[in-house]
Design a protein that fits this description.
By secondary structure, this protein is mainly alpha-helical. It has a single domain, classed as 3 Solenoid (Pectate Lyase C-like). Helix content is 18%, strand content 0%. It is built from three helices and no strands. The longest helix has 10 residues, at 14-23. The relative contact order is 0.13.
């Protein structure tokens, strides 16, 4: 279950969230199972964040740092991943994710993902 304080901080906006991340580098934000549907999280620092099973339908993640983020089972229906950095992210079991969404992200080839999302690149660890 998500940490309510972390969800509230993210809902304050990307600038406030990123400032909080810079001043609390040792905190590993927990946004598991959170309802983040339709939020504008463009340029958000979500590196290493636990977003397992999160509802990210229609969420704008343009340019977001999702390096090593856990997105296992997250609902990414119509999520915008343009220029998001997916280096080392875990996308296994992500719902409604497709190759068109991945192809516009950065470093998607290094993300752990299901065989259906090979998208022409080897899957790490497969």
């Amino acid at each position: 279950m998500a940490n309510d304080d972390h969800v509230a901080r993210l809902r304050q906006g990307v600038d406030a969230w990123n400032a909080w991340r810079r001043t609390h580098p040792d905190v590993e934000p927990d946004l598991r199972d959170s309802g983040l549907r339709g939020l504008d999280l463009a340029r958000a620092d979500l590196a290493g964040v636990d977003l397992r099973q999160a509802d990210l339908r229609g969420t704008i993640l343009r340019g977001a740092r999702l390096i090593r983020a856990r997105l296992d089972g997250a609902n990414l229906f119509k999520a915008v991943l343009d220029d998001a950095d997916l280096e080392g992210a875990v996308l296994t079991g992500a719902q409604f994710l497709n190759c068109a969404q991945l192809a516009v992200a950065r470093n998607w080839q290094s993300a752990q993902r299901d065989p259906a999302l090979a998208c022409g690149a080897p899957i790490p660890g497969a």
